[in-house]
Amino acid sequence: MEGILYYWIFWCWLIIAAFLWPKGTERTMAIYFILINLASSQSFVHGKEVAAGLSSLEMWAFSMYLTARNGYLKSPRFLLGVFGMMAGYAAIQLFQLFDPVWFIVDKFYILLIVFTGGSLYIGKDWMERMVLFTAAMLQGEFLYWAVIRHFYEGLFIGGADFLDLCASGTAVIGTWTLLGMGAELVRKRRKKNTGSQDPVLTRFP
Fold first, then answer.
1. Distance (Å, rounded) from C-alpha 162 to C-alpha 134?
2. Which of 12, 133, 147, 152 could share a disulfide with 119, CB 3.0–4.6 Å?
């Protein structure tokens, strides 16, 4: 069922933001954004040649706001990552459209693995990884539309399957970042406990 992953994952993000994040402006913004995004998930913006999901456009606008707010535009690494992943997304979509026989694995899993992996590798922290992933995916969707609009009419971008992909990517990035933080905490505690022992005793097993 298309869209089910998006709803479940975004409701989980809403619970995390409301009850686990420290109070502040970022928490309030995140809660409002998630609520508005969920409420508008069935709304669409219709243009002359294309229709787009309102939730996808909101994600793109929010990712652009966070990009400017956190100064990511000053980072060549971030910009190259976004443009490279954007082009890769459009290329995979076009390749699957014109020659689907090569796709033994579902396109959903290919995009999820490639772009979450790229975001985790390029991004320095969880916020940068989230913004990198969503900005690249959404702009890749726009690029894909810009290419195929010359061949197809009545196009629709940013639909339920795309929302599922974006939500799944944020879940993977969030889980991976959380596991990394947990591993770092365990490492620091182990190092602290080892350093606090009597140096004479540490010579013996």
1. 11
2. 133
Each domain of the chain, given as residue ranges in start order, spans: 4-188
4 near 164, Cβ under 8 Å? yes
The pTM of the full predicted model, rounded to 2 decimals, is 0.83
Q: What is the pLDDT of residues 44-93, one digit of tens each?
A: 888 777 888 899 999 999 999 999 998 998 889 999 999 999 999 999 88
- Rounded CA-CA distance 145/100 in Å is 18
What is the C-alpha separation between 154 and 47, in angstroms, rounded? 10
Of the candidates 2, 171, 166, 167, the one whose C-alpha atom is nearest the C-alpha of residue 89 is 166
Which pLDDT does position 44 carry in this prediction?
Answer: 86
Distances from the Cα of 5 to the Cαs of 99, 164, 168, in angstroms? 27, 5, 7
Give 157's DSSP letter.
Answer: E
Residue 28 to residue 106: CA distance in whole angstroms: 37
Angstrom distances, CA of residue 142 to CA of 41, 56, 79: 18, 11, 17
